[in-house]
């Protein structure tokens, strides 16, 4: 329906009750806007509550009621802010009195600018409260339960604390790089190991620059930077751990282990293994050297001999045994005997002319020498004569002189054998012959010695077996005085009734 009337000679059309500006349409639009606003407020993830200038509630959403466990029948538009606080105290949500709560919140509410604070409820939950003043007076508050967030933050903070404590107390140095090769973590132990300052290796420094800086500081020497970076990248791209050792300019040795991290980047740990390496070297040395003379022992000698047989064109093996050494031990005691053995070892080393020659102690007063590439038997004979002459000189201990001699057996490679066992056996047989001929004697191996030694050893074996078999018979032959015809004594004769001889 529309009405038209004339005003000042001009027709005017007036919309009726159903027109655009009609109260009904305005009410509908307002209702729709209110519905939208209510839906938006109700569907907020946070709690919301709005108060007017008289501190009376205008609106709140379900999350606000839920956060504070309020009674929805009591918390209605128009209720005073203080009464809500009183209600929260009554139901046991608040941990303080309503007056105390009001005194805490009032300063924030009265501020002419947004404010935020946290409040801990009686059940331990932590609520973040944000106040925003309204132009018309009053305020709107947003409430968020941040209990889990704070718990996660505390856990993260604790993890950081533990991580920092672990870094600070690590016996190893540590550097951590991101996927771009930038330094993101560095502990104090790294600085201590390399004796550098924090400013020398700031966070954000590239791996390339770290290596370059260590070179410039004179800590590393002789490292190809490009090759080092190439090897690191290749290992990380393959997802493999890389372990290397670096010898520093001050003589220390560091073990460096690089481990790739998930998502890119890597962790490098640094460990000072100087003492461990020295201990390992000492253990290896002890395993391969005689503890008394510090000469190579039997195990190391065999390794050197096996190696020499594959490299040298010819060799001489000299088996040595001291003469009268037992008398020194029996007369002066084992400490003096040990001293004498060390002196003999020193003299034998001085007799060698080639740096590759090796003298070893097999045990007791038994020594063995490898002469590398002698110029014929004459060259080895000269070495044997030097040894006999050197060991034959007196050994002076305090105020006394001790005299010992030495016997030598010599086997030549390849004439007297092509393997270690044969050469050592033949040198021993030549030594056996030398000792049977007297003192300070050397003898070269001869093929006939083998048969003689076998015969001698067979005889010794048969003699040892004859005693328990009662194959010996003792006879006494009388000794007479021819002039008087009297028996003045008897000669004891041992007869061996051997079934095989």
From TrEMBL:
Molecular function per GO: catalytic activity
Stated name of the protein: Diguanylate phosphodiesterase
Species name: Mesorhizobium sanjuanii
Lineage, broadest ranks: Bacteria, Pseudomonadati, Pseudomonadota, Alphaproteobacteria, Hyphomicrobiales
Matching Pfam families: EAL, GGDEF, PAS_7
Signal peptide region: none
Segments forming domain GGDEF: 313-447
Domain EAL: 456-501
Taxonomy, superkingdom: Bacteria
């Amino acid at each position: 329906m529309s009405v038209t009337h004339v005003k000042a000679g001009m027709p005017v059309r007036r919309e009726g009750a159903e027109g655009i500006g009609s109260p009904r349409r305005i009410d509908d639009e307002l209702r729709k806007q209110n519905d939208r606003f209510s839906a938006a407020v109700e569907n907020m993830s946070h709690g919301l509550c709005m108060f007017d200038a008289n501190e009376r509630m205008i609106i709140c959403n379900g999350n606000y009621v839920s956060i504070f466990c309020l009674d929805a029948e009591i918390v209605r538009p128009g209720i005073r802010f203080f009464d809500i606080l009183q209600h929260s105290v009554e139901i046991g949500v608040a941990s303080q009195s309503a007056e105390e709560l009001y005194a805490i919140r009032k300063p924030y509410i009265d501020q002419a600018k947004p404010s935020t604070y946290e409040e801990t409820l009686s059940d331990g939950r932590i609520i973040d409260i944000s106040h925003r003043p309204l132009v018309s007076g009053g305020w709107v508050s947003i409430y968020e339960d941040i209990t889990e967030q704070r718990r996660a933050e505390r856990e993260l903070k604790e993890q950081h604390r533990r991580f920092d404590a672990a870094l600070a107390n690590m016996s190893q140095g540590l550097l951590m790089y991101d996927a771009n090769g930038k330094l993101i973590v560095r502990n104090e132990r790294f600085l201590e190991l390399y004796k550098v300052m924090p400013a020398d290796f700031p966070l954000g420094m590239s791996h390339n620059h770290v290596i370059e800086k260590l070179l410039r500081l004179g800590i590393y020497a002789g490292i190809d930077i490009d090759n080092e970076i190439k090897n690191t990248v290749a290992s990380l791209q393959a997802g493999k751990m890389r372990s290397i050792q670096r010898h520093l300019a001050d003589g220390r040795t560091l073990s460096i282990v690089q481990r790739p991290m998930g998502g890119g980047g890597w962790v490098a740990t640094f460990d000072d293994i100087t003492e461990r390496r020295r201990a390992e070297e000492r253990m290896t040395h002890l395993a391969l050297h005689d503890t008394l003379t510090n000469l190579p022992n039997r195990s190391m000698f065999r390794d050197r001999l096996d190696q020499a047989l594959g490299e040298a064109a010819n060799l001489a093996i000299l088996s040595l045994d001291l003469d009268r050494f037992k008398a020194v031990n029996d007369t002066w005691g084992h400490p003096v005997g040990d001293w004498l053995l060390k002196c003999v070892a020193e003299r034998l080393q001085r007799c060698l002319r080639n740096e590759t020659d090796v003298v070893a102690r097999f045990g007791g007063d038994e020594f063995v020498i490898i002469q590398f590439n002698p110029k014929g038997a004459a060259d080895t004979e000269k070495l044997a004569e030097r040894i006999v002459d050197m060991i034959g000189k007196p050994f002076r201990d305090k105020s006394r002189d001790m005299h010992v001699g030495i016997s030598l057996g010599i086997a030549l490679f390849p004439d007297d054998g092509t393997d270690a066992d044969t050469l050592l056996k033949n040198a021993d047989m030549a030594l056996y012959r030398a000792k049977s001929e007297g003192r300070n004697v050397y003898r070269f191996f001869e093929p006939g010695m083998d048969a003689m030694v076998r015969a001698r050893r067979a005889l010794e074996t048969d003699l040892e077996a004859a005693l328990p078999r009662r194959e010996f018979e003792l006879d006494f032959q009388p000794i007479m005085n021819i002039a008087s015809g009297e028996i003045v004594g008897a000669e004891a004769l041992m007869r061996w009734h051997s079934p095989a001889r």
